[in-house]
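step: validate -> pass
step: tokenize input -> pass
step: predict -> running
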Amino acid sequence: MLDEIDTPLAIPADVEGLTPEFLTQVVRTVHPGVTVTGFELLERKRYGEIMVSTSDRLKMRLDYAPGAPDDLPRQVAVKMKRSIDAVLGELYQNEVDFYVRLRPGLAIEAPVVVGGVCDKETALYYLLLEDLSLRGAVFPSAVRDNSLAEVRAVLDQMARLHAASGTARACAATLPGIRAMSRGRCTTAWTPRCR
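step: predict -> pass
step: emit ->
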């Protein structure tokens, strides 16, 4: 886990700062002992380029040193900080914590997590997930028609997640640091926009 990294992790502000050494530290937050020996950038989408998101998105192919698990995804989808809105650091931290700390123990349909790190003060983060496009995944959105079966499938997974995590108070007790976004800088920034 990130807490076990000996030196403070310098999180690159942009993709040009990525190195195999940094990616190794990210992967080791979930898969200790795995080493990234190289990577290839396959695709890059920034906020406003055919998508609306709180993150920039990459697709990458990772090369691992011998000994990496055979089922560890080599092609990954990467979520990273977009260039604005440092106030989103708490939101990013919760997402990384969900995937790195909570997701591995849940029996829900969700991407395999490869690794994740976040500095909530600077809102710099990288979340490496299985590239679900390789499984033909369809991502529901407000700008496309979603079938009743797709909506039911999403609601089913949300119900499984909530049944597994219990109440917000129980979840907070077992996962300190993951909190509801009902207070703090992120909520203060977004609440006036939602009224």
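step: describe -> DSSP finds five helices and five strands in the chain.
step: cleanup -> pass
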